[in-house]
Amino acid sequence: MEKTIFTKEYKLLISLLKQARKDAKLTQTDVAKAIGEPQSFVSKVESGERKIDVLELWRLSLLYKKPIQHFFPFTKKEFSQKEKTVLKAATLDKNSK
C-alpha cells in the first residue's frame, strides 16, 4: 500500500492547510506560537516532511476557523483500486473475528 504521506489525497490536505493558513493571514511563525510548536514543525508539515495527526489537524482547523471537513473534499469515488482492495480486506478480516 502506498505510504499515506505520498498519496494525492494527503498532498491535497497539505495544500488546503497551507491555503487556510494564508487565508487566515498567518505566518508559519504565527501558527507555531499559537499551537506551541517550533516554526520548523509547521514548515515540515506544509512541505510533507512530517505527517500531521488528527489532533494536530483539529487544532489547526480551529486556528484557521475552518471546519475539519474543509480539509477532506474528496469522495469515495476518488479512492484508488488498491485502496479499495485494502479497505475490503480489512472489512472482511474484521468481520471474520
C-alpha termini separation: 23 Å
Query: What pattern of helices and strands is seen along the backbone?
Result: HHHHH
CA gyration radius, whole angstroms: 16 Å
Name of the CATH architecture:
Orthogonal Bundle
Q: Bin the helical content.
A: 55-70%
Which class best fits the helix and strand makeup? Answer: mainly alpha
Arithmetic mean pLDDT: 85
The CATH homologous superfamily is termed lambda repressor-like DNA-binding domains
Number of helices: 5
CATH topology: 434 Repressor (Amino-terminal Domain)
- DSSP E strands, number: 0
Strand content: under 5%
Q: What is the general shape?
A: elongated
What is the CATH first-level class name?
Answer: Mainly Alpha
Total number of distinct structural domains: 1
> Could you name the ranges where pLDDT drops below 50 across 5 or more consecutive residues?
none
Major pleated sheet: none
Quaternary form: single chain
Report what the structure shows.
- The chain has 97 residues and is mainly α.
- It has helices at 8-23, 28-35, 39-47, 54-63, 81-95.
- It is built from five helices and no strands.
- The chain starts with 7 loop residues before the first helix and ends with a helix.
- The chain has one domain (4-95): 434 Repressor (Amino-terminal Domain).
- Residues 17-71 form the HTH cro/C1-type domain.
- It comes from Leptospira idonii.
- This is XRE family transcriptional regulator.
Detail the topology: elements first, then pairings.
Layout: H1 8-23, H2 28-35, H3 39-47, H4 54-63, H5 81-95
Helix pairs in contact: 2-3
